[in-house]
Amino acid sequence: MSTRLIQTATLFCAILIVSAAPALADAERDSTTETGWWYFTSATEAQINTKRAEGYRLIKLSVVDNDPMRFSAVLVHNSGAYFNPSDGWWFDLTFTQMEDILQAPGVRALQIYPI
Hints:
By secondary structure, the protein is of the alpha+beta class. The chain contains four helices and three strands; from the N terminus they run ααβαββα.
C-alpha cells in the first residue's frame, strides 16, 4: 500500500469519526421556542437596564463606542425555555472590583472585553 493511500484512508477515517459524533445542542442558540427579544445597536446603560427590569436577560453584548458608552446588545425574555436565574452585567470595573464579583458563589464570567 502506498504512503499516499494510507494517508488518504487515515484522513477519511478521521473525518468519519468526527462527523459521526452528534452535535451538542446549545439551549441559547438552538431553541425553537418563541420568545420576546430585543436587539440594540447603540444602547445606553439605562436602555439595557430598563429592558432587564422588564424581565429580559442579556445573551450577547459588545461595546460600540466608549465616549459616550454605547452597546450592541441582544436580550431574550427571561422565562420558559429561556429562563436563567442568574443574570448580571458590569462595565468600567477595576481588576479588584471584577475579582470581587467573580468570587461570589455561582458567578462566572461569560464575556470580558477591555474598554
